[in-house]
Design brief:
heterodimer; A: mainly alpha; MetI-like fold; B: 286 residues; two-stranded antiparallel sheet
Amino acid sequence: MTVALERFDVSMTKARRGVLAARSGRRPWTFYALASVFTFYVAALYGPMICIYILSFQDIRGGLVFPMKGHSLHWFVDLFTQVRTGDVKGSFDRSIKLAVLVTVITLVFSFMAGLAFRRRFFGDTFVFYLMIGSLVAPGLVLGIGVGLLFQWIGINASWYTSALGAQLSWTLPFGVLVMFAVMSRFDSVWEEAARDLGASRWQTIRFVVIPVLAPGLVAVALFGFTLSYDEFARTLQTAGSLNTLPLEIWSMTLNVTSPSLYALGTVTTVVSFVIIGACIGAIVLINKRRGIRATSH
Amino acid sequence: MLRRNLSAWLYVAPLMLVLVPFFLLPILVVLAASFFETDGFGGLLPTFTLANYVDVLTSAQTFQLYMATLKFTVLTWLFTLIIGFLVAYFLVFHVRNQLLAIGLFLVCTVPFWTSNIIRMISWIPLLGKEGLVNSALLGTGIIREPIEVLLYSGLAVVIAYVHQLTIFMVVPIFNSMARIDKRVIEAALDAGASRLDVMRYIVIPMSKSGIALGSIFVVSIVMGDFFVVKVMSGGSSASVVSAFYENVGVLQYPIAAASAVLLTLILIGVISLILRAVDIRREITQ
């Protein structure tokens, strides 16, 4: 995603310098048509989500549809205190722990794989297609496979073993693909320069590669965390007896018909937004500091 | 050469240590299970039988399930492609302020990082019998009775898919469009091409890799999904994987495995058709 943005930078400046900018001084009608399509898309993207956030703040009379019935935090309290809605607190706790674990592993493993994939090596096509296969395989099928495998070997399925692995089979390919995009802009000349100056392999990675790729690594972490935190299909058959949060929401959609479902939606989305905001903020901050350093020298 | 290969394999070793036990082996386990018999209590008898495949391939239900899944896949693919293409085109070619374009792109991508399940259930207050759409239509007097097919129907399933998956089209198409050198378009316009010609001979051919990549994501997710179908159709429609889920629920592993193998083969077929059009690896890694 970051690459898309930077490539975009380049082509935009090209366009501005060129004739195109001068020529399109007046907006063609297609601009207005496409602008409405875009506006409609964004409204449809966010509109429904905003509805459930609003509806989660109803009081005890609240239902699943508008109009709003009062204002209170009743359903949030209900969510964390009622046994009837299941073990929300516990599953929330597990989901966060699992997501952190997945993020760290995804970050390290995809960074390493990204380093390897800069050059062709024996069997690289096999690894690549194995990864693509893992990405597109139906999650539920994979989950059942993992479940059966664990059953045959005789290990109990649990969220920190089988579910962790099943989630990694989904977040790692994503992480590596993002790494590909990030690496495509990494100039190996910098690495050679470091080596010429006497840096060891580890020093090169630690003091040259990682700092240069930092924004991309934050993006990989963002993918790792959010994809794990919201993962459902692969986790369903592999989590064992204790639920993660998406599994909890799934069971709630089947038997809870009160706004506590919406309250849970609001809570988990707030967590997602905090993570997204922190990551995007970190990327912007890193780039800004670089800009200052580049101009002051 | 050997040393280079060795160090490269050292770097991909952790990745392989995840992919082999959690992707390759499970798929092989499912493949093996599809030839086994069940003892009826969730246990598997390691024999070799093709009976599961015969069952799957000869049942009329299989055909119906695939037709239903195919219908959802084609409809979702079509809508996500049209919307995704237009959104990406707007951002790349029409938004002149660069910062604004980046901001709008982020606005489009943020929901991708939030829960799919929550985004799906968020259609309930809109599409339900007493939902916003129905009340709006009743209020303006366009309809007299609330439309009940909005929620818990095939329509709701397609809406939920398009809502979730358009982003998978927007990002790759945006990526390949942003790579188009604007000078090529200027040259074409100077040479007297109409804007339709520019679209047909430059923009669409040069966005092909993005379209292919997006299509792979959308098709594989829709064909592998059971969750959206189950919740949004209210149980009225089924897909290949939701039937599979029911089978697993009653511990019919072998027949579920056979149907999973069939689905995987079909998916591989579709994806390799798409891959024949573009070399994805070159597109991604370059």
